[in-house]
Amino acid sequence: MKTPTDTIHHDEMTSPVGRLQLVADADGLRGIWFEHERDPLVIPPHWIRVTAAHASTPIAMARAQLTEYFAGKRRRFDLPLHPIGTPFQLEVWEELARIPYGVTISYADLATRIGRPRAMRAVGAANGRNPLPIIVPCHRVIGRDGSLTGFSGGVEIKRLLLDHERAAPAGDLFA
């Protein structure tokens, strides 16, 4: 017998960084894939495509909030998330979600923030497996020397996201 979390929904949206595939279950958004991902999403036939008419789904919420983000009207996301990962990955992803809009940190900083300063490579690997890019802002983690290193959507998309956040006007966007 299937449980609600066995039912996977998906849809796509256009964005300034290309087409995004959104995937969710009843518990929340599970993943976002870029159009030219290094590990592209293969949609199984049993997944259900949702449309804009399904306004209460995590996918519809994500679509709306991502649209606001790209329009410069949203700096934080507030929607149910359900990433699947190891306890260590979940710990790293939770810390990623705490990086403020427009701020970058290094992999070493991220490792220190989770109390594992020597685990930079493991933190980098967990960062690279983040299933919710943009919303869980792995693009805000850069090399210690300021270099833009690996990103599932490609370094150019990482640069575009960081430039987008730097260009946003100051002020209260949450009012």
UniProtKB/TrEMBL annotation:
The answer to whether UniProt assigns keyword Methyltransferase to this entry is yes
Active-site residues, as the UniProt record annotates them: C138
Q: Which enzyme class?
A: transferase
Q: Name one Pfam family in it.
A: DNA_binding_1
Extract one GO BP annotation from the record: methylation
**Which keywords accompany this UniProt record?**
Cytoplasm, DNA damage, DNA repair, Methyltransferase, Transferase
> What is the protein's major site of localization?
cytoplasm
Keyword Cytoplasm (UniProt): yes
Compartments, as annotated in UniProt:
Cytoplasm
State the similarity comment.
Answer: Belongs to the MGMT family.
Q: What is this protein called?
A: Methylated-DNA--protein-cysteine methyltransferase
Source organism per entry reads Rhodanobacter fulvus Jip2
